[in-house]
Amino acid sequence: MSFKEVQAEELQFNPFTRIGSDWMLITAGDKENFNTMTASWGGAGVLWGKNTATCYIRPQRYTKEFIDSNDTFTLSFFGPDYRNALNICGTCSGRDCSKVEKAGLTPCYLEGTVAFEEANLIFVCRKLYKDDMPPENFIAMENDAKWYPNKDYHVMYIAEILKVFAAD
């Protein structure tokens, strides 16, 4: 598939459906070595005068190593035909198998990082901020019991959306 660059402000993008219901892939690395993971938690908005995306990654996720060791990463969004592929990328670890191959996805390289040919929308992001989410900072304590029975608290990443690519 080919992509065209579009302005973020032109998007008809509902983060509640595109992230929360449809899911996305968070991908970091380069042509030689990368990993991806499915995410259904995140956000998009404006912070520090920049278009930004927020992602949350648990410490044991293999993709976190790639996010931490690279300045940029992508968020890839797909149509409903790719739900099974996203499920595979969310349940298989890149440490144990070639989940991209198993999911039938084709890596493409944009702006020095990795996304997927099958996506219909891609955000190329640059990390701006990272912070742990310790339980002592929870105001609504039910989140600790409900979402963290293993005490594997997410790390929050805020990134500038550098470029947006839409399927042509």
Give me some keywords for this one.
168 residues, alpha+beta, Pnp Oxidase, Chain A, eight-stranded antiparallel sheet, 5 helices, 41% strand
Please give the structural blueprint.
Elements lengths: L2 E4 L8 H4 L5 E6 L4 E6 L2 E6 L2 E8 L4 H8 L2 E6 L5 H9 L7 H5 L3 E4 L2 E4 L4 E12 L9 H6 L7 E13 L1
Antiparallel strand pairs: 1-10, 2-3, 2-6, 4-5, 5-10, 6-9, 7-8, 9-10
What does it look like?
The chain is built from 5 helices and 10 strands, in the order E-H-E-E-E-E-H-E-H-H-E-E-E-H-E. With 168 residues, the protein is an alpha+beta fold. Strand 7 and strand 8 form a beta hairpin. The chain has helices spanning 15-18, 62-69, 83-91, 99-103, 142-147; strands at 3-6, 24-29, 34-39, 42-47, 50-57, 72-77, 107-110, 113-116, 121-132, 155-167. The strands form 2 sheets. Strands 1, 2, 3, 4, 5, 6, 9 and 10 form an 8-stranded antiparallel sheet that branches. The chain has one domain (3-167): Pnp Oxidase, Chain A, CATH 2.30.110.10.
